[in-house]
Amino acid sequence: xxxNTLSVGALSANTLAAPTIRLLDTDWSVTALxxxxxxxxxxxxxxxxxxxxxxxxxxxxxxxxxxxxDGNEQLLSWIGLTDWRYSTTFVWNxxxxxxxDLVFAGLDTIAEIELNGVSLGTTRNxxxxxxxxxxxxxxxxxxxxxxxFRSPIKAADAASLDLGYRPHVNHHPYNxxxxxxxxxxxxxxxxxxxxxxxxxxxxxxxxxxxxxTVRPIATVSDPTGPTSTGLVDVHVEVDRTTQTPVNVTASxxxxxxxxxLPAGATETTVSLSVPDVDLWxxxxxxxxxxxxxxxxxxxxxxxxxxxxxxxxxxxxxxxxDTTPDENGTPFTLVINGQSVFVRGANWIPDDAFxxxxxxxxxxxxxxxxxxxxxxxxRVWGGGVFESDDFYDLCxxxxxxxxxxxxxxxxAYAEEAPLGDEIEAEARENVIRLAAHPSLVVLxxxxxxxxxxxxxxxxxxxxxxTWGGGFYYDVFPALIAELAPHIGYTPGSPFSPVAGTVRxxxxxxxxxxxxxxxxxxxxxxxxxxxxEYQPRFVSEFGWQGPPTWSTLTESIHDAPLTxxxxxxxxxxxxxxxxxxxxxxxxxxxPLPENIDDWHWAMSLNxxxxxxxxxxxxxxxxxxxxxxxxxxxxxxxxxxxxxxxDGYGRPKPLLYAIKHAYxxxxxxxxxxxxxxxxxxxxxxADTWSGELLVRRYTDTGAVLAEHAEQVTLPARxxxxxxxxxxxxxxxxxxxxxxxAELAGVRGHWFFTEARDSTLRQGDPEVSxxxxxxxxxxxxxxxxxxxDLALLVDKVDPAALVDDMLVTLLPGESVVFTVTSLLxxxxxxxxxxGVLRSTNQLxxx
Length: 842
Prior knowledge:
Oligomer: single chain
Radius of gyration: 28 Å
């Protein structure tokens, strides 16, 4: 029987009046077949959850330990080498529909499907859906559905032989099959190599005709004019069982139009012009209004409604400004005619088992992003095309999104069958996501252009295809056809030349387009971020451990050390601990106990990213974006994330919050001296007296400089400092503070380890409130990076701020949200109330 991709109309993006949809989500079971299955599991049939995966089913049955804990990852490696049989039975009562389709929204990954003992087909792609016409196969009464998943590790190995070796990172040839790349492990990810029905299974019954796809393309005639006219081209595809003429009606904001499809026709476009629309703006630039677009399908002769679709749209325009200038080629995102400085973070799957990520969990994570003043989320290409829940929330909140096509850090065969699968998944997901106004960038790949030029791939490929045809031909053609209102870039990093997607520039040239900066983490020290003058940085990062509560919940080593067995399992980066140590010692002494080690590495991660982001923002408009690697984690691990694998914010999240604030004051090296750069990324003018003082570590003022500054909206100003202020007389004991209208920036002339920072006993008071606690701290000495690690008291607690620098005698009040009833003094303990000073031995 034929296999077809699932229509957008049957996905969660749209709400359908008809056809009839029946969810097959009960009475599933799973059984191990061929593979190195432990004797205790070999012949067991286990209840299964759909959507779900083998690992989570075995975990629910208490047959395996939690793969996230200790060294269990290796203990469970047999699962990915095993074939699995999923089955269910269901009662079917024919209701007279012309056709019934069995629809799999997501199969992970190499699957053979049988209904009542008859093969329906084989699937090999986790990233697309499949639909089978099963009307002739269903029978009244009891039916049996079986899906057999073949070992993904063995399948990838076999496919790699069939296709021919192509370079990739990590240990499995994930680039040979269409499975989530990080399911095989990454330098932050657990190797699960799992299998399962990871999205819903449904029976869809319908008659005469139905909406197969509804793809609205919404834009604006004049986004910068006094009023804006919204333009919507609603592209509709119809499936038919008869040749009866049908009518398609599209309606939005009180504007409606009907088009007739004559007998046999299956495609049409309904164009609407909507006067005086409210524009959709990204976070910080305006409101994010959404309009409900309704599409109905009716029989032309009887006006009987056959199908209905409802989709939310927003009216906005997207451009990339890549006009060459005297410094190279910018990469500026322009929304509705307004240039946007991208304050971004990279996104990986929020769970190694992505079926567990609910809408509520997406909301938690995106709320954390918004807390950190992030305005764009980049969905990285080694994961999945994110769900409609994710994109719906981004639409509502004004969070810009960038979606990679799912090709990462590897060369990919362009020939069939793999090439056909990649094109099919790209087409389906562009159609599915095209309506979301938050989606402004579709990106061809992650680091593959860079790898082809610089990682010796050309030698290893020996003339074989590597993916360039996707990035330069297939994907841009698809977007031109299906989503011309969304920007496209062939890769990240990429150096653009106006008018073409293909050129001879090095893809990671800092003078052109987007770049990734990884030599700092891998080989150098983070102050060297200031040596770069990039136009746009779409990846850069620094590692740190998860929060203390996550660390100790997931690793039970005794003693717990940076190199104890469980800690090493949860450190996936090559020489990760060595790089952590090498990156710390220039700034702070290496602690000798795990508690101080944890705080030092967490702090150093935060300081590294603050250094980078403040520098990049100080270069605007020369640099017009930074996307931190990474926002989130998929399991509890030492990694580059700002939010750990159990959803708890690390100090890094607070560092990003400060560095990405609408209004930033930062002190940077300029022309052999120092300058204050004030950045106003708000919609309002910012003006006042900029006061810069050089202090001793006792709080005495040694010198000062003041001048009046005015910053229009979306602008920056650079104020060079006279040597009398910026030149230290005792570098170890002095600092600069610049302040404008309550916004502060600091500059220390030496690293903390070389400074005169002292430990002092702060005056602390903590009281219970209705929602948690308030903790007031007054410091007797210069105190750097004061923080409350509240998860050590209550793993569910949150604090409103962190990493605060205070002069002697200054105070700060932390607001803690917690439902836990404890002695408030618990939040003032030395291991909870932390600072840089504690790490400097004086």
